[in-house]
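Why should sequence recovery work at all? Because a backbone constrains its sequence more than one might expect. Tight turns favour small or flexible residues, buried strands favour hydrophobic ones, and helices have their own preferences. The token representation captures these environments compactly. In the example below, the structure is given first.
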């Protein structure tokens, strides 16, 4: 019996970012002779960290059932992320370890020892880049061993919108260079793997949470500092060991802003590219979505979604928003990125839960179905959305749970009869 395991990674940068689309892989049933038939049953499992119980929940999305709970062996397992090979990483944000989860046995069979609390990871061909939650630092993990810390500063609580985490999401430039988003200094820092201090720095008006790359340029989402600096976008390039700024654009400087612009409450952290056109999406805390062209970062469209709109998922021509602090998801026709047409909202609660990230950071699309977690102050509910009809097809509630980030695994087993 052979196992073929296909992993779907999570997009922030994560964290934290838009969901990935995995096409269903299938194998033909072949008749070897009159008595031998190849059988290919398939199961799909979704893993989420549960920070209430310090464990990992394994969910069967075909049957919409809880398969089992797995102790994380750590504290505050915020994220279950793809690692190299057949493993998942359990990111314990209040522990100096990352748990290594074997999805074949659903056990934590090893761990990575760290010198700081882990924040999030990014993977290149052979190494895993990790940033820190409690220090403005990064480490490179090779063969499940973490390097010394890459840093040049000490922790000072960030004043930008977006919380206490010392760094944003990690970014590989190539197999040797990477970017560290230092939220304590409001800097984007370039490192070489052989140098534990930055070789180039770019200062920004507020901390950068998330960076994306397209056509020779990087685009960083700056979070904003409430009552002082609005969120914005930083366009820059990296070449010859240097970061070069192209444009830094604050949302407050754009023309055609929505009427409820309020620098006291605005904040942003993630962006997304339109899948077929040169435009970028930025969400904001009060619920507006901004669409900017990539060349000059001018405003092409703006529309209203839910409070804390932070992530975007595309399915065909449909744009789906993740509204962290609201009760509904929004669906738009994004065929024309300069003129979005509202399609529908799906509501999941009649109550706002203050201080709770109600819609989980990750949304996953498998076989035309959207999966995501909705949290209250008491439980988490996994929803399955039929994207052809845009209806709630099924749900599964986990009592006394709080689930924020997860990963899908699809396993296909082949045997003979």
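From this structural description, the recovered sequence reads:
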């Amino acid at each position: 019996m052979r196992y073929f395991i296909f992993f779907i990674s999570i997009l922030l940068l994560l964290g934290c970012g838009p969901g990935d689309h995995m096409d269903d892989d299938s194998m033909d049933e072949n008749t070897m002779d009159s008595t031998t038939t190849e059988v290919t049953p398939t199961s799909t499992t979704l893993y989420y960290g549960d920070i209430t119980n310090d464990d990992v929940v394994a969910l069967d999305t075909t049957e919409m059932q809880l398969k089992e709970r797995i102790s994380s062996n750590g504290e505050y397992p915020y994220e279950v992320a793809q690692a190299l090979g057949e493993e998942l990483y359990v990111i314990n944000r209040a522990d100096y370890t990352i748990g290594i989860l074997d999805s074949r046995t659903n056990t934590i069979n090893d761990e990575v020892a760290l010198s700081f609390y882990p924040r999030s990871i990014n993977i290149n061909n052979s190494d895993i880049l990790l940033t820190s939650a409690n220090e403005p630092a990064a480490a490179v993990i090779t063969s499940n061993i973490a390097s010394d810390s890459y840093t040049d500063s000490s922790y000072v609580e960030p004043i930008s919108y977006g919380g206490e985490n010392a760094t944003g999401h990690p970014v590989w430039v190539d197999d040797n260079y990477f970017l560290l988003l230092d939220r304590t200094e409001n800097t984007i820092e370039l490192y070489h793997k052989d140098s534990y201090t930055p070789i180039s720095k770019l200062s920004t008006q507020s901390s950068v949470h998330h960076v994306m790359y397209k056509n020779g340029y990087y685009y960083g989402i700056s979070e904003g500092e409430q009552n002082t600096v609005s969120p914005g976008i930083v366009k820059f390039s990296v070449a010859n060991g240097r970061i070069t700024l192209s444009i830094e654009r604050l949302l407050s400087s754009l023309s055609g802003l929505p009427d409820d612009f309020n620098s006291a409450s605005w904040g942003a952290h993630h962006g997304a590219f339109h899948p077929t056109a040169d435009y970028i999406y930025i969400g904001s805390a009060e619920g507006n979505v901004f669409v900017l062209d990539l060349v000059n970062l001018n405003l092409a469209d703006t529309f209203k979604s839910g409070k804390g709109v932070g992530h975007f998922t595309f399915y065909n021509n449909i744009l789906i928003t993740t509204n962290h602090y609201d009760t509904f998801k929004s669906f738009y026709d994004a065929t024309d990125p300069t003129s979005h047409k509202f399609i529908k909202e799906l509501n999941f609660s009649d109550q706002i839960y203050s201080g709770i990230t109600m819609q989980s950071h990750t949304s996953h699309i498998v076989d035309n179905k959207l999966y995501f977690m909705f949290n209250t102050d008491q439980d988490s509910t996994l929803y399955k959305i039929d994207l052809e009809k845009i209806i709630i097809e099924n749900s599964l509630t986990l009592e006394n749970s709080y689930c924020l980030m997860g990963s899908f695994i699809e396993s296909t087993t082949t045997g003979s009869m």
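A few observations help interpret the result. Residues 124 and 175 are 6 Å apart (CA to CA).
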